[in-house]
Amino acid sequence: MPKDSAPQTIYLADYTPFGFDVDSVHLTFDLAPSATRVTSRIRFAPKPDATDKTFFLHGEGLSLISAKIDGEPVTPELTAEGLTCAVPNVPFTWEAEVQIDPAANTALEGLYQSGGMYCTQCEAEGFRKITYYPDRPDVMSSFTVRINGPHPVLLSNGNPVASGDGWAEWHDPWPKPAYLFALVAGELVAHRDTFTTMEGRHVDLALYVRPGDEGKCAFGMQALKDSMKWDEDVYGRAYDLDVFNIVAVDDFNMGAMENKGLNIFNASAVLASAETSTDTNFERIEAIIAHEYFHNWTGNRITCRDWFQLCLKEGLTVFRDAQFTSDMRSAPVKRISDVIDLRARQFPEDQGPLAHPVRPESFQEINNFYTATVYEKGAEVIGMLKTLVGDDAYARALDLYFDRHDGQACTIEDWIKVFEDTTGRDLSQFKRWYSQAGTPRVAVEDSFEDGTYTLTFRQHTPPSAATPDPQPQVIPVAVGLLGPDGAEVLGTQVLELTQDRQSFSFPGLDARPVPSILRGFSAPVVLDYAANDAFLLAHDTDPFNRWEAARNLGKASLLAAITQGDAPDAAWLDGVAGILTDATLDPAYRAYTLSLPGQSQLAADLANAGTTPDPDAIWAAHEAHRAALAERVADALPGLYAAHQVDAPYAPDAEQSGKRALGNAALSMLTRLDGGDTAQAQFDHASNMTQQLSALSNLIRAGRGDAALAQFEAQWKHDRLVMDKWFGLQVMEARPDDAADTATALTKHSDFNWKNPNRFRATLGAFAAHHAGFHAKDGSGYTLLANWLITLDPVNPQTTARMCSAFQTWRRYDAIRGSMIQKELTRIAETPGLSRDTTEMITRIQNA
Ligand code: TRP
Ligand code: ZN
Fold first, then answer.
1. Ligand 1 mutation pick, 254, 266, 800, max ligand atoms within 8 A of CB
2. Bridge-partner residues for 194, per DSSP?
């Protein structure tokens, strides 16, 4: 809901505990679409040593019907943010009845309706839209919930206590903050299974979906069981309730939510079938199920003291889900895809006006800090910590963390301390990773003399508004050395940079080695070093750096094409051709070696080098490189394509999906040579979505997609998740001068429901990610996006605010584009009643 009051900034330094303990919470819901009644009965106990004794309960958009203390009616003082009330100085019972309007809740925060069902989203501060409560993560309590409603399925957190016709009661014995509260009611069907924990607890598992989606549950359920087992095997963490429920919801702002015992998922993050989901969808679903399940220990049993500590649960849980995916699939492939993602999403954030530390120190709207920096850089920081202390110490530190802090709301200081106590190491300098914004740049020089090879590193973090005076960080740099014949003369060693400038020597070498630096991407930094990429591409034993070498060659070739009109580099073409046809390598890995750095990233590289990026020139260079590669490997393509077709029944496993990834990479090159004939044949015979969608994108790119698009729409118009792909693909595959028109036409389609975040993102999110289309010279892309953000903001501030980040790179571009973006930002900022969420984002983007 729009806020009219002047935005308030919240500071980490201002933290004060709540003055009361909450001993128990009883909630009763009488569900009705526009007039749900919520009755609360809460036991409060004043803390004797409290510095702030104010009894303040958060509450937003609530109609207070009645309030009582120990059974006596009271008249609290109400504001737009909550209430205050005079209370006894001894334990007391607070009772309140409020009325709320789930049917009118389009922001998808609090209690709302989606496709006829009721559901909730309380993280971060949504519980205050359900009832009056100290809505802060350091206030933890057990919850008992009674739901009255004419729905066959009535769910809340914890274990079921009792139920009857039109009601159900739940009890969650584990003390939890309100942000983990959840409720679901509706006509849902359950896909059931069971799991027995290593402690012998029998757990009933259920995945609740809308009727018709039953056939899309099996994979998610298996992923859940795999996650439960993995957390036992690897972290020694068992599940702690008798039931674990997951619900799929069509309208959801994010991927999924880890509510205790009742995870709520965006349908796109859990529903899967071979016919409707791609291999990429399956992998993402497996990772998100794992992520939310892992939160049960890292987030729920141990939660955050305040929202500044968000990375405590998110960074660690992302790190854990990445470990899980590496174990389930291919570790190098997972690492490569995570680094691609980090560079595409986190680096621009860390190097632009939205830069903030992994643990921010102030915010206006916490929803704006569920960022790539908190999540993905937060996970990188944990990876570095593990590298620095070693696997054994990491495992011991985690045991201590669970042991010491179970049931608590913690800080990054608590987290660091378990590592210090485990290892005896002083981690105060390492802690800068949590407090400094910006991506460090690491420059390398090398020399060779008398058999000694010396690497000299200089680290430098560009100052930013968030961190004006960055100090040197602890940077683990994994290094290996290769001899002139390509054999490894020194296996991977971790060098610890702690100073601005530091040298490391390697004596006793016969000849000058070729270094392989930052193996496995051992730190989230930009490496400035003119590596011998062609050599590393041929010989490096580190799979990440071998891929990186290909990428560096491709990048250099693209930059030369953009700035000097050079033809694609032969060393890149030869190197990639060699990898492509090397059947000893994992097909998924080979497919990644073909992928070029993204166009937005090339724009960033150009800007960093002092050249104003021209989006059309970048697009053209990308096309020229793809065409040149197709020509270079033309003879091998039909064989490569044929060798990577899967005959076996569809399985979304690493082996089959790797094969399809390479087969479809071959298809996209083949399409440049055969005009789309192979793609058409694949489209006509496809029996799974991976093959169908890949064929469809190639047909669009070849300029002959109309019939296939119509056919696809006729086949899938009943399936919202598949239609999201149909909307998105047309925008993604549009030519730059056509992207805005394509997106605009799609917004007029009868199935374009802009209030559904998945459909909005599929269409407008895809448009904002179409580099040359969004940055069209005439500014039409900026206007198109700004118009839609202005339309969506009053309905769904959270999703609107997230999408404002499309404008964060404005400083990279020429003055004309820059001023056109500024004009749109101003227009958004001046919209009457603009939400706090969007106001904060626009202001930050404009000002830094
Ligand atoms: N805690 C969730 C996760 O990372 C994220 C999330 C889901 C969320 N829905 C949200 C965050 C709404 C803010 C608002 O798993
Ligand atoms: Zn999470």
1. 254
2. 204
